[in-house]
């Protein structure tokens, strides 16, 4: 058993729900899709579609991330509408208030398993090298005992649970376990490690998983997410080839910056990966503003979100920024667990802006105030949380 990551690809139509990208073994799955629309829902969807620039028709087998040719021709406004989330307390969508798709959008992934490994981001992010390594050195075979498990990478784990996605993922794991007669091993990277850890808490998986391997997990968060949220700077977070691809699709560096800034507004997975006091220290300065001498400490990053105009995320920050609480529960007894961090690259620990922060628009690119060891994104300090 083993796995890796991907991202939303499959069918897109204007209605509601999504599944995305991943990191976990024997299994793969997409979220359940709600039933038919009421007349009021249909009218709302049509109005939202017109406002977003997206036609109220389904697109089959297109990539949402990266945007594929059909979506690129509709422009970045439509793409952002497909990717952005909103906070909902609708009992029809979620079991408790959490983040869901825009009301006019349904995004589902292609069928998971070995096929999920064919998505371009899977290769661009380097995951095929891991698949090849497992096949060549440990006699795994993709589609037989080696699978990718897609999930919606935009969501925090609480929103995934509230929308039922974690339950669906657990069912996919159980299918593979039943078929093979062996317990699963989860291999998860970055945000996927937090998803994997939450997935291990699903009651149906008790006794069904033997191992959990977390590669550069975001258990302690990363200062790079602050630059992504405030400035649309994803250079730290994405492989260079992916940045080049998005720049070409969206029309240039400035268009990419604006699109990524807008896209990450209200994206709870980004907030979930912001620095944690348990790794950085509660009084550590995460962001400083030179012109006003203002400092945002790790324990007060909700005010940072407010000041850049992300008020919805600021109001739900304590709900989604919850990896530290999840770690206290830890993997269930009987699951061997390992954390692997990079340690040879300078990794940002705090950022510095020269001018006051702007609300509702991308800020200047920050400088790096201080660095520590890590892999360039996830600092090595997160390893101490794995020891707990």
Describe this structure in words.
The chain has 18 helices and 13 strands. It has helices spanning 39-52, 69-72, 76-83, 120-124, 127-138, 157-162, 165-180, 191-199, 224-231, 240-250, 253-264, 268-272, 277-280, 301-307, 311-315, 317-320, 323-329, 383-387; strands at residues 9-13, 16-17, 59-63, 85-88, 98-101, 105-109, 184-189, 209-215, 285-289, 294-297, 336-340, 345-353, 367-374. The two termini are 25 Å apart. 37% of the residues lie in helices and 18% in strands. Helix 8 links the parallel strand 7 and strand 8. The longest helix has 16 residues, at 165-180. A four-stranded mixed beta sheet has the order 2-6-1-3. A four-stranded mixed beta sheet has the order 10-9-12-13, with helices on one face. By secondary structure, it is α/β, with parallel strands linked by helices.
Question: Which key terms come to mind for this protein?
Answer:
388 residues, alpha/beta, 13 strands, 37% helix, globular
Number of E strands:
13
Q: Tell me, rounded to a whole number, the average pLDDT.
A: 81
Measured between the Cα atoms of the first and last residue, the distance is 25 Å
**Strands of the largest sheet, in order across it?**
2-6-1-3
Rg (C-alpha, Å):
20 Å
Shape: globular
Helix fraction by DSSP (H/I, runs of at least 4) = 25-40%
Low-confidence stretches: 1-37
Main sheet characteristics: 4 strands, mixed
Number of helices: 18
Structural class: alpha/beta
Strand content: 15-25%
């Amino acid at each position: 058993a083993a796995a890796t990551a991907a991202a939303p690809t499959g069918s897109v139509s204007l209605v509601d729900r999504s599944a995305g990208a991943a990191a976990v073994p024997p299994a793969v799955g997409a979220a359940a899709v709600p039933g038919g629309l009421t007349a009021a829902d249909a009218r709302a969807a049509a109005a939202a579609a017109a406002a977003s620039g997206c036609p109220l028709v389904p697109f089959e087998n297109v990539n949402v991330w990266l945007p594929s040719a059909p979506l690129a021709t509709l422009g970045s406004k439509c793409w952002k509408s497909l990717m952005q989330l909103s906070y909902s307390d609708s009992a029809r969508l979620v079991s408790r208030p959490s983040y869901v798709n825009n009301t006019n959008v349904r995004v589902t992934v292609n069928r998971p398993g070995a096929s999920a490994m064919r998505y371009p981001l899977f290769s661009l992010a380097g995951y095929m090298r891991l698949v090849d390594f497992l096949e060549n050195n440990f006699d795994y075979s993709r589609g037989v005992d080696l699978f990718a498990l897609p999930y919606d990478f935009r969501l925090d784990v609480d929103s995934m649970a509230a929308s039922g996605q974690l339950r669906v993922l657990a069912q996919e794991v159980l299918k593979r376990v039943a078929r093979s007669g062996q317990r699963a091993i989860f291999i998860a990277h970055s945000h996927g490690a937090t998803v994997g850890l939450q997935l291990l808490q699903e009651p149906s998986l008790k006794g069904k998983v033997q191992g959990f391997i977390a590669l550069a997990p975001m258990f302690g968060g990363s200062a790079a997410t602050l630059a992504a949220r405030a400035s649309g700077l994803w250079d730290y977070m994405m492989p260079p080839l992916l940045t080049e691809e998005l720049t070409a699709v969206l029309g240039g560096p400035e268009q990419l910056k604006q699109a990524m800034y807008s896209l990450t507004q209200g994206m709870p997975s980004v907030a979930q990966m912001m620095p944690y006091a348990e790794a950085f220290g509660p009084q550590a300065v995460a962001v400083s503003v030179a012109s006003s001498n203002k400092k945002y400490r790790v324990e007060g990053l909700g005010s940072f979100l407010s000041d850049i105009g992300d008020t919805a995320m600021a109001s739900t920050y304590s709900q989604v920024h919850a990896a530290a609480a999840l770690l206290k529960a830890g993997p269930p007894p009987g699951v061997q667990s390992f954390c692997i961090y990079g340690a040879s690259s300078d990794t940002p620990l705090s950022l510095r802006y020269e001018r006051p922060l702007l609300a509702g628009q991308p800020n200047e690119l920050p400088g790096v105030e201080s660095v520590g060891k890590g892999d360039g994104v996830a600092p090595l300090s997160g390893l101490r949380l794995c020891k707990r």
